[in-house]
Amino acid sequence: MALYVTAAEILEKAERKQGALKTLVYDSKFPNIKQLFALVCETQKFSSVLQEIIESTKLLKLTKLKMPLAKVLLYDLLIGQGLKCGGAWKANMMKHRPRLQAELARMKVRRKVSRNEDLLPAGSPADQLPRYVRVNTLKTTVGDAVDYLKREGFSYLGQAVRLDNLTLKNKDFLLDLHLPEVLAFPPNTDFHDHFLYKAGHIILQDKASCLPAHLLHPPPGSHVIDACAAPGNKTSHLAAIMKNRGRLFAFDLDGKRLSTMSTLLLRAGVSCHQLANRDFLTVDPDDPQYKDVEYILLDPSCSGSGMVCLRDRSPADQEEEKARLAALASFQLRCLNHSLRFPRLKRLVYSTCSIHSQENEEVVAACLQQNPDFRLVPLLAQWPERGLEPLSQCLRASTTKTLTHGFFVAMLEKVSDCRGIKKKPAVPVSEAELVPPAPSSDAKIPEATEENSDGSDAEEMLTSAVGEINDSSNKKRKRKRKRKKKKATKAE
Ligand code: SAM
Fold first, then answer.
1. Does the beta carbon of 285 lie inside 6 Å of ligand 1?
2. Which atom of ligand 1 is nearest to the CA of 227?
3. In this model, does residue 4 exceed pLDDT 70?
4. Mind telling me the catalytic residues?
5. How far is it, in rounded angstroms, from Cα 126 to Cα 41?
6. N vs C: which end of the chain shows fewer Cβ within 10 Å?
7. Which CATH architecture has domain 125-204?
8. pLDDT(240) > 80
9. Phi and psi of 184, rounded to 5°?
């Protein structure tokens, strides 16, 4: 019962724009977040189909249910895994099941389709994305996973050579062209009940979300921080790359997400990790236990605007959205600046599942401006979608150009670690003395989450940082020349 009541409340709130679906799910404190999230996402996906059935069968009048509750119950009754409640609701829905099923069947006949998925509104991007699966190399090999799936009737087409190879049908699957442990299947292939998934041999992870750990690539034995880690897909990917050797410090502010993460890491066979329920911004970079940290993965809370299933169907209040993005960007910049304070840091990957430049290029540009000893590393030359100019070293991902959810990745490296070769920074970041200092991350900060973060000082630095960067550094150069001239005259 509680599952359906909570799911219905969340759908109602999401419709009234009271928060992003993902956040509403986590905020609900429901004991089985995964189950709730799946139900809410799927019901929203099939919302128009369910509404049509409800209206044409007059279900609300017959059952006295409200629309959101009717939708979640109907989803599980007709499309999902069957009703998971008893009592009056179940009896009521079961009574009307024959007419509801008949209406669904009539819809399929009218639209000349056989599968429920084919009833979804045409062009819904989520339903056209391949189902990506990351092979967990801590538990198996890509070869063994492929053989297992072949034995089960899937047909393996080898490694993709072009992006359009990833448009798959029936039981076909292939190895991705960019990421060596990622397999691609036709859209909506369901692995939730599959042995390989339940045993932790495969992880259901979008291809774009596999980029951060793949690009950071910490060697086995290294010391690594995953700053905002839960629910831990990227942590388990890092551990696989590190072959479970070294130390992987994983922080998250949300205890509930962290405990889900702990279960997932156990299932994935991860053993080199150390979880901490902590605000990353309060972690002391000079604490001796982090003295050997050379790699950081920072995947902070973001608007989630790249997640196709979470995208709002109608635009939210513009002013509210602007303020929310500014607060998120401010938090993201603080995390980024804080990460760069770890004394032995060599490389850091920053990622978001947002499509807004305010949370992506603008955060990175502002950070580079405040940290001139770091520069951008050009990423995957063969990747088809780049960061917005001038940050083309970064990667973007989207449903249209990369057949993934929307995503952004940047990699920063310490300039002094480039074997003594002082290369040109990715964006003009010289003359640091003229740039206002980065906000101290020791300062007391309010709790930062996707929905709630402070909009403080760093925010100003963020505003159109990308656009202004060239202009401001020209001015700075002029001022520096003037100062030099003045000094020289004094010396004379
Ligand atoms: N990297 C994760 C993965 O791949 O599974 C997803 C991370 S999610 C985008 C962002 C996470 O940051 C959330 O779990 C949130 O609880 C956490 N978070 C937000 N503010 C934080 C803070 N100040 N310190 C640590 N974690 C924080």
1. no
2. 25
3. yes
4. 353
5. 11
6. C
7. 2-Layer Sandwich (3.30)
8. yes
9. -120, 135
